[in-house]
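quick q for whoever's on today - can somebody do inverse folding on this one?? i tried earlier but teh output was garbage lol. tokens:
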């Protein structure tokens, strides 16, 4: 689409950017540091990392500052920055059994091996404003930390070695093992265009970097009955999992290069059977995303299950509808492009409308009919 050139547009754009920066700083408070954002706005940082598809808390915090707290814009910055980075090596598949758990709950069973671990969560707090935060300063921060450490004597965060709830159900024949895709078949949506119907690896990749609100909206539609699957959370985990790569010089050896925090959700949905003689079993949905973003992981798992339906009777069951409408970068970019000049296309619409009105008016004068009756 071509746009009409605007005289003096460059100066106007530059001045607009200067004004935006001025409005960000004119409040007379101390500049917000990237380190503060990274340390104290962890949920926002994790969301931007996931939607930007780059695990880097520092760059996510920087993008949040640059975008003045707009998560969609920040994710856009991260996605753009990611495209400039050179891919050095492909990591090996993550082994979730090695995850160091900081939070682990199950809605399906009260007692699970290793127990329920609430970890850090605000699920059980009253949603009321805490005005004491208005006066929070460095002294208050140090006091809160020292009081917590003196009272609870916290241990190093993270435990591992728990048996998964889903694995227990599989061993009892209540959940059918999903067909595993080979490494050769696993897609890379950053290198190849996705064709529909998409394989599950492509689908999960697209969901993992989709916009949290978009995924939640479609998953919520299923929860309310539009393609309902009535999910139950078998297990929700938040923790750090090791990242490994093949050893560059030694065959059949790996190197651990660090760890990343992820949120993983597995849901149990309605049971079914493939044939008349086959026993019924629970079906599964799976979600996993960067950082701590439980709503997104659960919504992913719900949509992963809804898209397995053979017949799409609701939007949440239509794979193409779900995957093409939940990418925040794509959708916000298309929405924002309407702010750009559309002078030529709109002029064409005006010309056609005026011509149609003129034609209708002439016919009305000729026949004496009311234009509203045509």
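ok took a stab at it. sequence:
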């Amino acid at each position: 689409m071509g746009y009409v050139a605007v005289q003096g547009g460059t100066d106007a754009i530059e001045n607009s950017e200067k004004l935006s920066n001025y409005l960000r700083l004119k409040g007379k408070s101390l500049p917000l540091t990237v380190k503060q954002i990274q340390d104290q706005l962890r949920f926002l940082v994790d969301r931007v990392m996931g939607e930007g598809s780059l695990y880097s808390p520092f760059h996510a915090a920087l993008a949040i500052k640059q975008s003045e707290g707009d998560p969609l814009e920040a994710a856009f910055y991260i996605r753009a920055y990611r495209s400039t980075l050179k891919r050095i090596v492909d990591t090996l598949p993550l082994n979730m059994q090695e995850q160091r758990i900081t939070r682990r709950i199950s809605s399906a069973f009260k007692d699970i091996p290793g127990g329920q671990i609430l970890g850090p969560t605000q699920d059980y707090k009253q949603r009321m404003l805490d005005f004491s935060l208005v006066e929070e300063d460095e002294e208050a921060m140090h006091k809160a930390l020292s009081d917590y450490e003196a009272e609870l004597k916290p241990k190093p965060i993270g435990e591992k070695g728990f048996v998964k709830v889903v694995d227990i159900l599989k061993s009892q024949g209540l959940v059918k093992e999903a067909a595993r895709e080979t490494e050769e078949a696993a897609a890379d949506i950053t290198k190849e265009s996705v064709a529909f119907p998409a394989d599950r690896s492509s689908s999960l990749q697209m969901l993992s970097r989709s916009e949290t609100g978009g995924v939640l909206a479609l998953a919520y539609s299923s929860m309310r009955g539009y393609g309902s699957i009535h999910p139950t959370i078998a297990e929700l985990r938040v923790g750090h999992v090791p990242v490994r790569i093949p050893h560059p010089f030694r065959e059949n050896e790996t190197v651990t290069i660090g760890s990343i925090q992820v949120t993983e959700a597995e849901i149990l949905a309605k049971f079914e059977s493939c044939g008349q003689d086959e026993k019924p079993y629970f079906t599964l949905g799976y979600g996993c995303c960067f950082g701590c973003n439980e709503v997104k992981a659960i919504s992913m798992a719900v949509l992963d299950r809804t898209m397995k339906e053979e017949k799409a009777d609701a939007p949440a069951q239509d794979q193409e509808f779900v995957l093409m409408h939940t990418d925040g970068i794509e959708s916000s970019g298309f929405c924002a492009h309407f702010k750009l000049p559309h002078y030529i296309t709109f002029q064409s619409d005006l010309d056609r409308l005026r011509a149609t009105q003129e034609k209708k008016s002439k016919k009305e004068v000729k026949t004496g009919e009311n234009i509203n009756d045509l």
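fwiw Residues 1-6 have pLDDT under 50 and may be disordered. also Residues 343-367 form the longest helix (25 residues). so keep that in mind when u check it
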